[in-house]
Design a protein that fits this description.
mainly beta; 30 strands; 44% strand; globular
């Protein structure tokens, strides 16, 4: 649930964070597992792509396990945070005068979507692609979140989404197309395991075409994700809790094809500005990947500057309203990370990255042996052309 993370930053809106693995910008390890895409309405659309994601900064269990969620668009009306199915999050500033409920979102760099308030806890997200998402507030009083209840394709075809679990009211439990055909079902049983069925009645003798299983431990962390294969190939995860923030971080992952990833953290990690929820945030220092079957082990080490994406050392005071705190820093604020590829304990390749106060990559220096590649980027302000909706 991206809108409810412990820290809000536009550094989380870049692909290096959203696609999984270690993000050199933030030093966080995330997981992204895509379910097969499937089309509704007898292949007429819309096409649905569901993705399971783990974010260590999400301290909530919304139905899929602690830190895990199905990526989707959602709007938190209390904190005024909009999160898209792509994983991007933005602070919403308020309704623009005379614009029929259109919200202002200053953090948008590209006008790829618009958010409208339709009244009575209903919202509309209009994407530049032509897709529309109707959102309605669900959940318990005081913690309601606006979630998609209907999706419209560019061609006008629709699917409806339902949230029917009383214990986890924000868990997507069913997707239905225009012909009232159920194309997705998700349930959480008494053992806290989550079953996700794609086309649940379209297989032989009315069985699901594919089933994904999320097996949870007693602490509500996902210990295993079982794929729809005869041998029950699966992902397996081991976690460690940060004693300062209470957040859970993955320290080991086993892949369905026999690989293993080990992640080591600096638990004192990134310092945060005064007034933040914590004095520090853990960050990855070592990422080891063993593909298995006798293949070579890949080792990567990470180090970071004293400044960081959270604004440490900038002189700012933490603002918990949901605005990116780094925007309070001076325009010349920069932070840096160093990625070092290791063989037998020796660095064979290093990548030094420099980011500005907008989290944009301004310089990348790659060194391998006697070879050095430097890439520098300059940025200019450009007003995006609005799209009508």
């Amino acid at each position: 649930m991206a809108a409810s993370t412990a820290v809000h930053s536009n550094a989380f809106n870049f692909l290096s964070y959203l696609q999984g693995g270690v993000d050199p910008r933030t030093g966080q390890y995330t997981v992204a597992i895509s379910l097969p895409a499937f089309k509704a309405n007898n292949l007429a659309g819309p096409e649905l792509t569901l993705q399971l994601g783990f974010n260590p900064l999400n301290a909530h269990d919304m139905g899929c396990g602690l830190g895990w969620s199905l990526q989707r668009t959602e709007y938190d009306p209390v904190r005024s945070i909009i999160s898209l199915s792509s994983g991007e999050t933005f602070k919403v500033n308020g309704v623009l005068p005379g614009m029929e409920g259109l919200y202002e979102i200053e953090e948008q760099k590209i006008l790829s979507f618009k958010l409208y308030d339709k009244g009575n806890g209903r919202y509309l997200v209009a994407h530049k692609s032509g897709q529309l998402e109707e959102l309605e507030e669900v959940g318990r009083a005081g913690s309601k979140i606006a979630l998609p209840v209907r999706l419209h394709s560019f061609e006008g075809r629709t699917v409806s989404l339902y949230y029917e679990d009383t214990d986890f009211p924000l868990l997507l439990t069913r997707i239905e197309d225009e012909q009232a055909q159920t194309i997705f079902i998700s349930t959480r049983d008494s053992d806290n395991n989550v079953m996700m069925h794609l086309h649940p009645y379209a297989g032989e003798q009315g069985t699901p075409l594919a089933t994904f299983e999320l097996l949870l431990d007693g602490d509500n962390t996902v210990k295993s994700i079982v794929l729809p294969t005869p041998e029950r190939a699966n992902w397996r995860f081991t976690y460690q809790q940060d004693p300062v923030t209470g957040l859970m971080f993955i320290v080991q992952a086993h892949t369905p094809v026999g690989g293993q990833e080990d992640i080591t953290y600096d638990w004192s990690g990134h310092p945060l500005p005064p007034g933040a929820f914590s004095a520090t945030l853990p960050r990855v220092t070592h990422w080891q990947r063993d593909p298995g079957f006798g293949q070579g082990i890949i080792e990567t080490q990470y180090s970071y500057s004293e400044t960081n994406f959270l604004g440490a050392g900038s002189g700012i005071t933490w603002d918990n309203s949901g605005v990116d705190n780094l925007y309070q820093a001076s325009m010349d604020y920069v932070y840096q990370s160093l990625e070092s590829w290791q063989v037998a304990g020796q660095a064979v390749k290093t990548i030094e990255r420099l980011f500005n106060s907008f989290h944009l990559l301004t310089s990348e220096l790659t060194t391998q042996g006697a070879n050095v590649l430097t890439v520098s980027t300059e940025y200019y302000l450009q007003v995006d052309v609005p799209f009508s909706q």
